[in-house]
């Protein structure tokens, strides 16, 4: 009978109509992402030993860091910048980090108005409370 | 035949057109509404991935492989890492092999769901689209909780996978597999069994078996034209030879069969994942590989069955940390050439449906 398939389809949609809601009211309700989600980066400068392994692991030369030697001939981190315009958020830098100073976090509202703002100063960002906690408030 | 006093009309469809599924341009030659000729124009999404591979180390290129067929990221990476492992003669731990199969087949299901969804959308069926995307979302959630990203998981590594699955992964996978029969029933009821969809798709855009073979069409498009060929069976890679599954084949050669075979393949992928879920052993997920990879001098060709067709990786190593040459054979790129052959004589509305049935992803076509 022609139209049987149409009725079947309608019955599925009517059944679905009384099911639970699947959509979210973003940005009023902000989703909590899994702890492994790669959506932003955070640095703990005191843990960083300026070894430069993250710089070598990166496929796109995103990371620019400078360090100076102190009186004990130990490297001390001076500046740490990430050019997020080139970053794939692949996480290879965090895998390479021996002290886990560089970590991924779940801050996902990363849009900016100007291109210059894509150059993240990671030392300054580490002081921002919501970023170091890794959660969107 | 042209009516006297009229002339052929040529229309640019794309690159910014919703039904070209990306940045694909067709120059459509029309006689009234009837398509007389189509010239596909590609290259708008060309990123030079082969060249990029040559300027990055072997590990650094893995994130880029997800961006070839971005609807099924894991299977592209699978081809690449297996090719490098073949070159280096590296063994992969059992658990990692199983996880790779689970991820690759989940990626296949996700890709086919998008194909069915956008196919229905192109004949103005909005509802099936949202049903397919609802279920694809659950697969992407599985990817996200394990690998950290939804469409570009970057999960596989040379010698294993990046990390083991979290605790909540296996229960979530199990509940997804349990819900699948109902989902498939829904897709059938709402889209494939619908008479309007059938009348739009059946006997439209015939790709005969001989033509498909001559044009080197691979993947589901070939199997919908009556050729039972799949790399997973023809030349099993990884641990595919351990699983019991069928290669679905349909003989209609039309747009409807090219859509419907995806639904059958989803069922077969489900079978593979169920077996992998049952047999997966405990153990390490990564073998010991040097931090700096230097494969021996040589070349390798490895092929896998990507959701879009056969994908081949040709890698030449000169013994340094970077490959000397990488050539990627993608199924979708070769499948483009069937478009001008099968749309001749159909109306412009059918062109949209026929194009959707080919399941092209421009990331893979343009590389």
Automatic annotation (TrEMBL), chain B:
It catalyses: a quinone + NADH + 5 H(+)(in) = a quinol + NAD(+) + 4 H(+)(out). GO terms for molecular function: NAD binding; NADH dehydrogenase (quinone) (non-electrogenic) activity; quinone binding. InterPro entries: NADH_Q_OxRdtase_suD, NADH_UbQ_OxRdtase_49kDa_CS, NDH1_su_D/H, NiFe-Hase_large. Keywords: Cell membrane, Membrane, NAD, Quinone, Translocase, Transport. Its EC number is 7.1.1.-. NDH-1 shuttles electrons from NADH, via FMN and iron-sulfur (Fe-S) centers, to quinones in the respiratory chain. The immediate electron acceptor for the enzyme in this species is believed to be a menaquinone. Couples the redox reaction to proton translocation (for every two electrons transferred, four hydrogen ions are translocated across the cytoplasmic membrane), and thus conserves the redox energy in a proton gradient. Belongs to the complex I 49 kDa subunit family. This is NADH-quinone oxidoreductase subunit D. It is found in: Cell membrane. GO terms for cellular component: plasma membrane. Pfam families: Complex1_49kDa (PF00346). The keyword Translocase applies. It is a peripheral membrane protein. Residues 122-295 form the NADH-quinone oxidoreductase subunit D domain. NDH-1 is composed of 14 different subunits. Subunits NuoB, C, D, E, F, and G constitute the peripheral sector of the complex. It comes from the Bacteria. NCBIfam families: PRK06075.1 (NF004739), PRK12322.1 (NF008974).
